[in-house]
Amino acid sequence: MRRQWILGFLIAVLLVLGIAYPLPAQTVQSFPRALFTVGDLLCADTSSSLARLPAVAAGQALVSTALATCPAYSATLPAALATPEKTDGSIFIPAYQVCSSDNANLVKVRVAANDWALARTAGGAETFNVICPLDSWLQRTTAGKGIKINSIAIAYQVTTQALTSHTWGKVATVTYANNAANTVGADLATAPTLQTATQANPYVTSVAITTPAYLPSAANVSLTVEWQAVMQNLGVYRVIGVQVNFSRTDL
C-alpha cells in the first residue's frame, strides 16, 4: 500500500509539471474510489494538489475560464469560438431572372452578349410597378442566425426620354396566413432618390437599410423590394438588377 501511494504521488508531480506518463492500473486504484464517477477529470487546482472535475450532462464543452484556474463545462461557447459573423457577403440578383412588373410591357431583353435586362420602349405615358424578391436564398429560421441585409443597390437605365417620376416603394416583409389578409411590414430601408434624368450608362442607386437585422426565413413570409417608374412616350427604361450586401453567421 505504501508503494502505491508513493507511485501515485510521483505521477501527480509529473502531471503538475506537464510531463506525460501513462497511468498504470494500480495508480488509479491508489486514489479513493468513492470520490470519482465515470467521466470525471483531474485538474491541478494549485501548484501542489489535484482537484476533481465532475462529469456533466451531454452537450457541454470544456472551456478555459482563466489562467491558473481549472476549466469549466459550459453549454455556451465563448464568442471567440462561436461561429463568427461574416460581413463581406455580396450577391447581384439579375432582374431578368427574378423581378417582375404589373405591366406586361416590361419584358426580358438581350441588350448585348451576356447583358440582359427587363426593358421597355414606351408607346405613350406608361406606369410600371416593379418588384424583386430578396429572400429566395435566405435559409435559416432561427432568430439572430442566417442573413442580415446591410444595404442594397438598384441598377437601372433611363435613355431617350426622362422619366416622369421614379418613386421608391419599400423593402418589406409580407406575411401570409390562412383566411387572413396579407400583412405587409414597414419599410426596412431609408428611402433613396431614384433618378429620372436620361444618361448613356446605367444608374446604380444605393439603398441603406435603416437598422440592419437578421431576417430568418420563416414559413409563409417573403421579403421584397418594390418601386415605381412612370415613363414618357418613346422613353427607354431598363431594370438591370438588385445588388444585396449582407452579413451571415451560418458558415
Please give the structural blueprint.
Layout: H1 2-16, H2 25-30, E1 41-46, E2 49-53, E3 61-63, E4 72-74, E5 86-94, H3 95-98, E6 100-101, E7 107-112, E8 115-121, E9 126-133, E10 147-159, E11 165-175, E12 183-184, E13 203-208, E14 221-231, E15 236-248
Antiparallel strand pairs: 1-2, 3-4, 5-15, 6-9, 7-8, 8-15, 9-14, 10-13, 10-15, 11-12, 11-14
Structure, described:
A hairpin with a 2-residue loop joins strand 1 and strand 2 (49-53). The strands form four sheets. Strands 5, 7, 8, 10, 13 and 15 form a six-stranded antiparallel sheet that branches. This protein has 251 residues and is mostly beta strands. It is elongated, with a radius of gyration of 32 Å. It has two domains: 2-74, no CATH class; 86-248, Galactose-binding domain-like (Jelly Rolls), CATH 2.60.120. Residues 16-30 have low confidence and may be disordered. It is built from three helices and 15 strands.
Please give the radius of gyration in angstroms.
32 Å
Q: In CATH's first tier, which class of the largest domain applies?
A: Mainly Beta
Helix content: under 10%
Task: Please provide the ordered H/E string of secondary-structure elements.
Answer: HHEEEEEHEEEEEEEEEE
Number of helical stretches of at least 4 residues: 3
Strand share of the residues? 35-45%
Structural class: mainly beta
Number of domains: 2
